[in-house]
């Protein structure tokens, strides 16, 4: 299959209206995972209701005309407590879909009732069986695995569907099948897989042998094809892309403009494109924010964020460099801002270890699986 990146015309610039926003109800996390990127996870800085009201004033009209989600992220969003989370959710209209990304350790029956009452969709972070969760520890350094599993058990007791998000720091042979089989038992409906990234305060290397990473993705596809009971986020996107290339519609696959994905930090500051940049400062780029919802409506911030935020302009230059140089552009769309910044120190570079691990070798792995399983003579 020819990768048609260079001939792609679509997707230029950044859209003014997102499809979802990420909200940080608190900077605090009750865990202290070794690979975490968050700089202030030991501090409990809380979002005020005024911030949520300001965000909702822009979000509610968007949600009235198209599907729209608010993703409560952290820190650990459940560490804010039910009462505060309910107060922050109250300004959002009934059309808004609420999602929460949680480490699951605080989930109990009361939280499950909260999820039901607020029609909240849950995604839990779990990295596979116990021995793969060694990086996930409490603030006192104890393994968090049993608490994660207890939280998931509560979700299952309440028949709540949930997604899982797994970080893989060693994509060695056997790990992909192990992870997939584990998730079949866990009972999640959707699985997202992240090869560990070097970003934020996590400076561990994410460089791996290319063949090993390609083999990891190929093995994951094979495991999924044996029992395709879970939506496998990365693999399904790869297959959609491969099908679009084959029928000549790949140019229509990426959105016309990049989704700005604004992250609203606890204090109302808005960082577009990469939640991982929130809370960081740089002599060249300042605090990466494009404004604050307590001073300017979110829709007004997003209307000209690309022009007014120096690093965003630099990132869009990098996306254009990807378009003209990378055969995977049509699949990837130019990667993530935070990975460029934390790996390359700037935004207008192109390839990163992250895009090699999670874009290039993902697609190669899917193709490797297809090659290994094509019928003789095909
Ligand atoms: S981020 Fe990486 S994989 Fe994506 S288009 Fe750019 S160079 Fe290619």
From TrEMBL:
Keyword Signal carried by entry: no
Pfam families: Radical_SAM (PF04055)
UniProt-listed SUPFAM superfamilies: Radical SAM enzymes
GO MF entry, a single one: oxidoreductase activity
Coiled coil feature spans: none
Superkingdom of the source species: Bacteria
Keywords: Iron, Iron-sulfur, Metal-binding, S-adenosyl-L-methionine
CDD domains: Radical_SAM (cd01335)
Protein name: Radical SAM protein
